[in-house]
Design goal:
With 275 residues, this protein is mainly alpha-helical. The chain folds into 3 domains: 41 residues; 97 residues, no CATH class; 128 residues, no CATH class. 67% of the residues lie in helices and 7% in strands. The protein is built from 8 helices and 3 strands; from the N terminus they run E-E-E-H-H-H-H-H-H-H-H. Strands 1-2-3 form a 3-stranded antiparallel sheet, covered by helices on one side. A hairpin with a 2-residue loop joins strand 2 and strand 3. Helix 3 crosses helix 5 and helix 6 packs across helix 8. The relative contact order is 0.10. Belongs to the mitochondrial carrier (TC 2.A.29) family. This is Mitochondrial carrier. It is found in: Mitochondrion inner membrane.
């Protein structure tokens, strides 16, 4: 969703762009937030940044899962004796590498989703590059990796827990004689949901920090620990789980579909050719 829903006690608000103006409106939960965004920005507002997400997500996800598979089946088995620990370490290493490489692109996606297109600020390649050049000029090249810490804190534990849980679920199903695409889907969806719940606070920190980095104001707290303490002090612990419903609604089916497709394509490509 393009607009950022934040929890401000005692009410939830959604930030929308309406007629070129930034507004905050009180909402009652996720679906009410969707209604407000739809009314203010139209259906397109719910998919703002989708193109950038695909440009970033497809190659990074492909590289991630191929790296994981190579670590799982080739690199780590001779080094780690425990079959339970292998998917955990494979997920952690693969996600750490790919997330670090793609961090500037993730910052770009957050920027596009949190700012409205306008005649003075269109979402074009030129405007994006201009925004990046301005950020580098003002804050240095390293600023493109701001938010990497919270992102790693979210994605690396998520990846490790997800793959360890997924492989455990798959082994359990196989032990009872069940296998196939539906087993992969259920195992992936359940593992993704559990991992999303555990890492939700880090997701909130990552999103807020990257949004603040792209802000024109220099008076925001952007370091991870001070930002965490500020959120806890001003909004309460529940704010660290803001947006958990849409996140799980996205992650559960996405993880299930992704891994079932990967398993299915892998089995198809592994079939011997008799031509």
């Amino acid at each position: 969703m393009s607009s950022v829903a934040a929890r401000a006690l005692p009410a939830e608000v959604v930030c929308v762009w309406e007629h070129g103006l930034f507004k905050t409106e009180r909402v009652n939960g996720f679906f009410d937030a969707v209604r407000h965004v739809w009314r203010a920005e139209g259906a397109r507002g719910l998919w703002k940044g989708a193109g950038t997400t695909l440009v970033i997500g497809v190659p990074s996800s492909s590289a991630y899962i191929l790296t994981y598979d190579h670590l799982l089946n080739v690199v780590l088995p001779p080094l780690i004796p425990s079959p339970t620990a292998i998917p955990l370490f494979a997920g952690v290493i693969a996600r750490s590498a790919i997330t670090t490489i793609a961090s500037p692109l993730e910052l770009l996606r957050t920027n596009l989703q949190s700012t409205p297109p306008s005649p003075d600020n269109p979402h074009t390649l030129r405007s994006v590059l201009t925004s990046f050049r301005t950020l580098v000029r003002q804050n240095g090249f390293v600023s493109l990796w701001r938010g990497l810490g919270p992102t790693l804190l979210r994605d690396v534990p998520f990846s490790g827990f997800y793959w360890a849980s997924y492989e455990a679920w798959k082994r359990n199903f196989l032990k009872h004689g069940y296998q196939g695409a539906w087993v992969a889907f259920i195992s992936g969806a359940v593992s993704g949901t559990s991992a999303a719940l555990i890492t939700s606070p880090f997701d909130v920190l990552k999103t807020r920090r990257q949004a603040l980095v792209m802000s024109t104001s220099n008076h925001h707290v952007t370091r991870t620990l001070p930002l965490l303490l500020q959120i806890m002090r001003t909004e309460g612990a529940s704010a660290l789980f803001a947006g958990i419903t849409p996140r799980i609604a996205k992650i559960a089916p996405a993880c299930g579909i992704m891994i079932s497709c990967f398993e299915g394509v892998g089995k198809f490509l592994a079939k011997p050719s008799y031509s």
